[in-house]
């Protein structure tokens, strides 16, 4: 990936939550724009557009930020039992309408990507739901949203659980099966690093699956311990996995936005965001020094010891005693 054409974006709500007073969406956008290296913002729909949608987009652009995606949120009691999979048809219709309205807004303001995080869709108990019906309803909703405007990319951001105990779209494999079932060229997947860990995946391996199929539309960087959506600073717990994900993105030709989906609850969000950018850029420079020929040879032989030594030499640069 070329640093010149890559956009870095960050989570707007992190800047709002850390403020010592209630700040507006516009003020939060201005605060984000002050972070050196941030060139984009991805906004929640409808959460960030309750007043004047055009003004919100204009505020981002006047601050020098590109709006690269809208992230769907299905908030409120109406969707506690599901969005596209709600047992009531009128609530499913309402959820799909929210998503298609987001696509319309994206089209009206030249925003290329709409990301569907289907947090409410799933179940909590055995025998609670008919699994085939849940899947069919989910796919029908995805197809409706993707068909709304074929010029907008639409992707599903998978997560194995939270808030439901079991999500419908739990993994990269589930997501790619959904891609096949939806059957739309503009429908793909967004990978979140913490969500992949929660799903028991290697983020780099998950990314490779989507990249092979040309279906990796978005990437959310963060870190955690694998049991929950911790949203810690990039590379803070799993530096090797982060480096490998960046290597896969590079080899797979990913040139989309890198979005920092982190929760700096006890850290200054601007400082934390700058640290995330610095970490990614430093890891990219490490990859510039990595012999791809040697790495390819190690991988072809599945030489675990050799590849680990090569990476440790790259990362630490310490001589053998």
What does this structure look like?
- This protein is α/β, with parallel strands linked by helices and 321 residues long.
- The chain has 2 domains: 8-289, Divalent-metal-dependent TIM barrel enzymes (TIM Barrel); 291-321, no CATH class.
- It contains 12 helices and 10 strands.
- It has helices spanning 12-18, 25-33, 53-62, 89-108, 131-148, 172-182, 193-198, 203-212, 239-251, 269-289, 292-300, 304-316; strands at 8-11, 40-45, 66-72, 113-116, 122-123, 153-157, 166-167, 187-192, 216-221, 258-260.
- The strands form 2 sheets. An 8-stranded parallel β-barrel has the order 1-2-3-4-6-8-9-10, surrounded by 8 helices.
- Strand 9 (216-221), helix 9 and strand 10 (258-260) form a beta-alpha-beta unit.
- Helix 4 (89-108) packs parallel to helix 5 and helix 9 crosses helix 10 (269-289).
- The longest helix has 21 residues, at 269-289.
- It is globular, with a radius of gyration of 20 Å.
Give a quick account of the main beta sheet: strands, pairing sense, barrel closure.
Answer: 8 strands, parallel, barrel
How many domains would you count in the coordinates?
A: 2
CATH topology of the largest domain: TIM Barrel
Tally of individual helices: 12
| Order of the strands making up the biggest sheet | 1-2-3-4-6-8-9-10
User: In whole angstroms, how far apart are the ends?
Assistant: 36 Å
Number of strands: 10
Q: Class of the largest domain in CATH?
A: Alpha Beta
Structural class estimated from helices and strands: alpha/beta
């Amino acid at each position: 990936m070329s640093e010149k054409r890559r956009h870095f974006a960050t989570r707007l709500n992190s800047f709002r939550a850390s403020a010592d007073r209630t700040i507006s969406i516009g003020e939060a956008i201005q605060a984000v724009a002050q972070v050196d290296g941030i060139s984009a913002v991805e906004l929640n729909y409808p959460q960030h557009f309750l007043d004047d949608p055009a003004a919100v987009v204009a505020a981002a652009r006047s601050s020098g930020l590109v709006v690269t995606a809208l992230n769907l949120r299905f908030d409120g009691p109406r969707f506690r039992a599901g969005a596209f999979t709600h047992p009531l048809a009128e609530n499913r219709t309402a959820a799909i309408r929210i998503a298609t309205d987001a696509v319309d807004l994206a089209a009206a303001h030249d925003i290329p990507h709409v990301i569907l995080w289907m947090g409410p869709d799933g179940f909590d108990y055995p025998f609670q739901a008919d699994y085939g019906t849940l899947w069919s309803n989910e796919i029908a909703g995805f197809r409706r949203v993707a068909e709304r405007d074929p010029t907008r990319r639409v992707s599903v951001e998978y997560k194995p659980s939270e808030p439901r105990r079991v999500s419908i779209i739990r993994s990269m494999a589930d997501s790619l099966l959904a891609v096949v079932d939806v059957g739309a060229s503009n429908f793909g997947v967004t990978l979140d690093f913490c969500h992949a860990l929660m799903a028991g995946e290697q983020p780099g391996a998950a990314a490779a699956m989507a990249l092979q199929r040309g279906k990796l539309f978005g990437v959310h960087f963060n870190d955690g311990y694998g049991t929950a959506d911790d949203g810690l600073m990039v590379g803070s717990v799993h530096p090797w996995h982060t480096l490998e994900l960046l290597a896969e993105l590079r080899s797979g030709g990913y040139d989309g936005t890198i979005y920092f989906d982190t929760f700096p609850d006890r850290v200054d969000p601007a400082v934390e965001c700058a640290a995330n950018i610095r970490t990614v850029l430093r890891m990219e420079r490490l990859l510039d020094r990595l012999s791809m020929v040697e790495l390819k040879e190690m991988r072809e032989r599945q030489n675990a010891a050799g590849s680990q030594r090569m990476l440790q030499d790259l990362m630490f640069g310490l001589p053998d005693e």
